[in-house]
Amino acid sequence: MAKLTDKSTFKCGLGAIQTVHAIDGVLPILHAGPGCAVKVGGGQDLGGSGHYASQIFPCTNLSEKEIVFGGEGILKKTIENAQKVIDADLYVVLTSCASEIIGDDSENVAGKFAQQGDPVIHVSTAGFKGNNYLAHDWVLTSIYDQYLKTDKPTSDQIIKGQVNVFASLPQHDPFWHGNYDVLEDLLLDIGLKPNIIFGHGRGIKNVDKIPYAEFNLVVNPWVGLESVQFLEEKFGTPFFHYPNLPVGAYETTKFLLAVAEYAGLDLEPIREYTEKNERKYYYFIERFANTLLEQRIMAKRFTVVADAQYSLAFTRYLVNDFGINPQKQYATEDVPEKHRDNIRELFQDLNTDYDAEISFETDGFKIHEEIKQEDYLGYPLIIGSAWEKPISAEVDAYYLNVTWPINERLVINSSYVGYDGGLNLLEDIYSEVLQRYE
């Protein structure tokens, strides 16, 4: 029996167009019907790579003719025309449900261009195979497999200190660019050489450097693991999995020391660096302690309705740093079953006697019905997507929109990551809280 999901916070596999768009100079070519890409983007301007606008891309615009007689011919013409009018470093063909159901061999079409020396690759991203979180890894793995022709590097080719960094889902996460920027700065400050392929000034030149890293770093509960495992198999590059996006002083210091220890760095200067940043962080906390500790206005319990990345990061920050008790938390991106036990354990690893319950629920209707039944012992704090705004009003909650769909704020390069990121989150939360007490 078919299952209906209400208020989804993820997209179909074709949403991988956003991963491609986030790499400077890499162009997605859609083998799909004319409405697919617009629907995947949700009609929002999510800011392209800076090289191409997010709503501009070649598409085969499959019609009834192609559905009946096949669309390989129109795909070939679309790739040829794209090469004539758009100067891209790499062309990435993304398939749709329609093109795969009718049996088009898109891989063969793209492969013939590659055999001629053209930078064209193929990724199977049909929506019935999975969502955009899974497809993010499919795109990366395909780039590594089909574009990177380098042999396994020798020890003298490895760049000392280089670390390839993978964290937020580009563009789907409104804070993706800011998150990568902050992680880059933090790693630079402790003496590493972060190599990031997404965002401004990076792109294909950084993709070319991927095989020569000392190690790969995944800062996410599960997204990105599949592709770095592939890199380990192809190039022998080990990876360090840090499952929690670091928000605030405690988690950021913990993150930096863990990465530094894995990289074999001298920990003493890094401890000095973290202590300096902690002093600055707590200076600002102390300045506004009267407001932050005013129990009559702040919520006593909170719920995060987001993907596992933010549900975990915000839960650990609000519990460990501020002692707010967690109500049930939600991971909404349809986390694969094989990752769920590890994520559950992370929600239990808190600096408190309280445990945080995590529900892997994709149906917004069910989530909202459960929120209605919860006892928050006062005003709730609900952090989530635009879907949570009506239920927040219904239960008289403080509400902060931080994940897709995000309709009432513009995020350019902001971030909640790092020392300053924790302060940014407090600013946004208390800006909502204080409006009730004008």
Topology record:
Layout (H helix, E strand, L loop, with lengths): L16 H5 L4 E6 L4 H6 L22 H6 L2 H14 L4 E6 L1 H5 L4 H10 L4 E4 L8 H16 L14 E5 L9 H14 L3 E3 L8 H5 L6 E5 L5 H11 L3 E4 L5 H16 L3 H21 L1 H4 L8 E6 L1 H13 L4 E2 L2 E3 L5 H12 L9 E3 L3 H10 L7 E4 L3 H7 L3 E4 L16 H18 L3
Parallel strand pairs: 1-2, 2-3, 4-5, 4-6, 6-7, 8-9, 8-10, 8-12, 10-11, 12-13
Brief rundown of the structure:
This protein is α/β, with parallel strands linked by helices and 438 residues long. Helix content is 44%, strand content 13%.
Describe what you observe in this structure:
The protein is of the alpha/beta class. It has three domains: 13-147, Rossmann fold; 155-265, Nitrogenase molybdenum iron protein domain (Rossmann fold, 3-Layer(aba) Sandwich); 280-435, 3-Layer(aba) Sandwich (Rossmann fold). It contains 18 helices and 13 strands. The chain has helices at 17-21, 36-41, 64-69, 72-85, 97-101, 106-115, 132-147, 176-189, 204-208, 225-235, 248-263, 267-287, 289-292, 308-320, 337-348, 364-373, 388-394, 418-435, and strands at 26-31, 90-95, 120-123, 162-166, 193-195, 215-219, 239-242, 301-306, 325-326, 329-331, 358-360, 381-384, 398-401. The strands form three sheets. Strands 8, 9, 10, 11, 12 and 13 form a six-stranded parallel sheet that branches. A four-stranded parallel sheet has the order 5-4-6-7, with helices on both faces. β6, α10 (225-235) and β7 (239-242) form a beta-alpha-beta unit. α7 (132-147) runs parallel beside α10 (225-235) and α11 packs antiparallel against α12. The chain starts with 16 loop residues before the first helix and ends with a helix. The model has no long low-confidence stretch (mean pLDDT 92).
